[in-house]
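Work Package 4 report. The design task specified in the project plan requires that, given a folded chain encoded as structure tokens, an amino acid be chosen for each position. We show below one input record used in the internal validation round.
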């Protein structure tokens, strides 16, 4: 079994009003291909810091992060940007779609940034949107979409460059129960069928039955006990 994301002895500290504060304390995590892992924890427990480090947005004070066996520590800014574009897919609480781009254009922009040729990009975008049930919405602007549709577009955009790892930050928070379950089911299917791994920070206990593991972040570490 291949581990597509590994966090090894991650520590994150910072100065707060002259005090030395530890947010993450030798945190460890391994997520295998095909696996959907939920991470829960109260506000202030370090979930955002954890996701930022896993997503190559923040370098930890100590420890190592490996994406498909390659360490992200110490890389130059451009190398990290390339890894985020090609190895990582991000899904947030708000879909964060670009208001002046149509549904298909949201995905094509990512392909252009990633250097994908136009023909392949068009085919992949349409294939993903068909899979997500959005074939009839290719030319719609975000303002014309429902909350669930916007979140599905965000999933398609995150998948456009075929990343190894999907990171989701409260992806169901703005959705009702039915649409929230649909979104997480899509993420679980994508992990299993395409051999990706998904890490989802959530407070939504309704979707936990769809996850392979549920971990709790407390005292700077991940544990299986809440």
């Amino acid at each position: 079994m291949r581990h597509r994301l590994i966090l090894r002895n991650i520590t994150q500290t910072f100065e707060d009003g002259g005090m030395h504060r530890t947010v993450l304390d030798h945190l460890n995590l391994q997520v295998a291909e095909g696996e959907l892992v939920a991470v829960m924890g109260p506000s202030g427990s370090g979930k955002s810091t954890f996701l930022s480090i896993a997503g190559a947005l923040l370098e930890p004070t100590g420890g190592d992060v490996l994406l498909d066996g390659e360490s992200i520590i110490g890389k130059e800014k451009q190398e990290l940007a390339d890894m985020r574009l090609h190895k990582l897919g991000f899904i947030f609480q708000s879909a964060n779609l670009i208001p002046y781009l149509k549904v298909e254009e949201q995905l094509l922009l990512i392909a252009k940034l990633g250097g994908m040729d136009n023909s392949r990009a068009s085919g992949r975008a349409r294939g993903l949107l068909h899979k997500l049930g959005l074939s009839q919405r290719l030319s719609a602007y975000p303002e014309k979409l429902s909350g669930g549709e916007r979140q599905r577009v965000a999933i398609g955009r995150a998948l456009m460059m075929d990343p190894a790892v999907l990171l989701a930050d409260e992806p169901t928070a703005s959705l009702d129960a039915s649409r929230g379950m649909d979104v997480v089911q899509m993420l679980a299917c994508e992990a299993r069928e395409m051999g990706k791994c998904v890490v989802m920070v959530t407070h939504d206990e309704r979707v936990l039955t769809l996850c392979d593991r549920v971990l709790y972040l407390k005292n700077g570490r991940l544990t299986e006990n809440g």
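The radius of gyration is 17 Å. Validation will be extended to a larger panel in the next phase.
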